[in-house]
Amino acid sequence: MIRTIVIGPRGKMGRLITQIAENSEHLQLVGAVGPRGRKYIGQDLGQVATLGRELNIPVVDDLTTVIEDCDVIIDFSTKEMGLVVLQLAQDYQKALVCGTTGFTSEEMALFQQASQTIPLLYAANTSKLVNVMSQLLQLATAMIGQETDIEILEMHDRWKKDAPSGTAKELGEVIAHELGKELAELAVYDRAGTGERKPGTIGFHSVRMGDTPSSHTVLFGGLGERLELSHHATDWRGFAQGACDCAVFLAQQPPGYYGVADGLKL
Asked: Binding of NADP(+): at which residues (predicted)?
């Protein structure tokens, strides 16, 4: 069994990851870590993650007190907590699956550096279907990317902290790299004002409202027609299942930087 620690077990992803890991044939929960000051610190993980039963695992606020007991850490928390977890994973030589978003390019470089000494899998989206969508985008971009206008529309709930979403950026990077460019060269955010659309750019549009689930659509606009590739999530279970499957994969790998396509063998 792969001994697993969940970071942020009260969050919408943390709760589902805990539920799936508890029922996994491959993962064994050995710890859970929440942010300092939260009322649930010290309570049983089963209660915190609303499993309806106790697991005899208290939620702590200091990763160092439990990290030596694990093989892999799954972190879907905040960027501030994520950077702390990253450093400790390096210090204690533990595999890390991170799905937290909102990191700067400089902070993402720290993940790349860490992967030289630990197995590390970073993904803004651990859904299998989203990653199938990425492969379809490669094909579509190769065939029509040069002759169409490309726009990315994403929707999330009112509580999401970063925009565009990490998934939208990853989709944009897939398209840009297929075009032989870096996303920073092509991305246009918050389009406003007057003037025609600049050819060859990738437009990003973010919607934040209510409890809207994750939704991403990439549009390839031609003259007289358009192609749309979309993914719509009805809940977060597919993302959590993907994260747990990636943890099983990662715990058995040497140091390196991995993606969901590696973890899910896509």
From this structure: 39
